Amino acid sequence: MDTLAALGPAALFMISMTITPGPNNMMLTASGANYGYRRTLPHLLGIMGGCFVLFTAVALGLGLVFERFPMVQTALRVVGSLYLLYLAWGIATAPPPSFGDTEGRPLSFWQAAAFQFANPKAWVMGLTLMASFLPEGGNTVINALLLAGVSELIAFPCISLWAGFGMAIGRWLKGPRAWRAFNGTMGALTAGCVVFILG
């Protein structure tokens, strides 16, 4: 019963965290514009899968590593920031899409899932979610799986909006110059997330 009571507030928390800008949503917007929603879907599902595993692991004790070894958190921020800059460069320098070929590739399921472990916003979400809404009573594993699972179901339409937003933008972009400007802007915004990560 405690778990069910926590799901409502947890859902509101997840909506506020996943519908707002962040590294994942910037990349989904760029991917939606360049590749369309269908080809972006593995990226989107990878975010959900990675966060599900991360959130569950946090609930089962991985979060204690940060408390006992603060340098781990610092290292994670640095590694996450460097990887994010690498992804941002890829977005910024991507050529205009050619919808007749498949040379350009969005992030795969596994790439997107792995990125969550280097994504400080995902860690903040997981730590806050489990610290605030995981019931103290009952089976911890079941409660963690249920809370993480429902959280990702809530997240799906929120992050889908960003991919859909990118797809809508892509329909309005005409010519290589407009595409280069868009990709450059999205790359810069993605790189800009590093300021908040290291700040």
From TrEMBL:
<feature type="transmembrane region" description="Helical">
    <location>
        <begin position="75"/>
        <end position="92"/>
    </location>
</feature>
<keyword id="KW-1003">Cell membrane</keyword>
<keyword id="KW-0472">Membrane</keyword>
<keyword id="KW-1133">Transmembrane helix</keyword>
<feature type="transmembrane region" description="Helical">
    <location>
        <begin position="144"/>
        <end position="169"/>
    </location>
</feature>
<keyword id="KW-0812">Transmembrane</keyword>
<feature type="transmembrane region" description="Helical">
    <location>
        <begin position="181"/>
        <end position="198"/>
    </location>
</feature>
<feature type="transmembrane region" description="Helical">
    <location>
        <begin position="42"/>
        <end position="66"/>
    </location>
</feature>
<dbReference type="InterPro" id="IPR001123">
    <property type="entry name" value="LeuE-type"/>
</dbReference>
<protein>
    <submittedName>
        <fullName>Lysine transporter LysE</fullName>
    </submittedName>
</protein>
<dbReference type="Pfam" id="PF01810">
    <property type="entry name" value="LysE"/>
</dbReference>
